[in-house]
Specification:
Layout: H1 5-11, E1 19-22, H2 28-39, E2 46-50, H3 64-73, E3 77-81, H4 91-100, E4 105-107, E5 109-110, E6 124-125, H5 127-142, H6 152-161, E7 163-167, E8 182-186
Parallel strand pairs: 1-2, 2-3, 3-4, 5-6
Antiparallel strand pairs: 7-8
């Protein structure tokens, strides 16, 4: 609906509220136009929500490349609106990919009990599935640490994996160190 001027006008009356602006099916020019219009009203927080709702969305139509391009183009936080089939073997991995490209907010539909007669049933998670989904997503998110320093796990790995450069034999005075004169060995005494 970001191309609907009446809707944008009504939204512009409440700039103090956070706004999730759906971008699925929109061109970059349409998104630019809507964002420019809304920025005239000093919105506190605009999120760009991207996803397709095709009841369910086939994983081959998600287009993470477009999401990455949108994320480079627009300086806003993004929401990934996942409408893939919850029964698919790969539906949860799709959200892990989204995490990997920098998505931190996810839209996921919740349903008390899956029922084929209800709209969005295919992409909605029941309570049990939602709990497992959140737990797994949080676990994967922990692997995306932004730390550039060596952590405890890396220090443990480093102790047994890193090798030291040592001389094979004592050097004589004035003798140059060559590659042939050294060896690379693990420091087994430093556990």
């Amino acid at each position: 609906e970001l191309s609907n001027p009446k809707m944008l006008e009504m939204i512009s009356r409440r700039p103090e509220l956070p706004l999730n602006l759906g971008t699925g099916g929109s061109t970059i020019q349409e998104i630019h136009r809507a964002v420019r219009y809304l920025n005239n009203f000093n919105f506190n927080k605009i999120y760009l929500a991207h996803g397709l709702q095709n009841f369910p969305t086939d994983i081959y139509n998600i287009n993470f490349y477009k999401m990455k391009e949108l994320m480079k183009t627009f300086d806003y936080e993004f929401i990934y609106c996942d409408h893939t089939d919850y029964r698919s073997d790969v539906h949860q991995y799709i959200d892990y990919v989204a995490l990997g490209i920098g998505i931190k907010i996810f839209e996921k539909h919740y349903i008390l009990k899956n029922n084929k007669k209800l709209i969005d049933n295919e992409s909605s998670l029941s309570a049990d599935n939602l709990e497992k989904y959140v737990k797994n997503l949080q676990g994967v998110a922990k692997s995306l640490s932004s730390s550039k320093s060596i952590g405890l796990s890396e220090k443990k790995y480093r102790q047994f994996q890193k090798k030291s450069t040592i001389l094979k034999n004592p050097l004589k005075k004035g003798e140059k160190i060559t590659l042939e004169a050294v060896s690379f060995k693990r420091d087994v005494g430093n556990k």
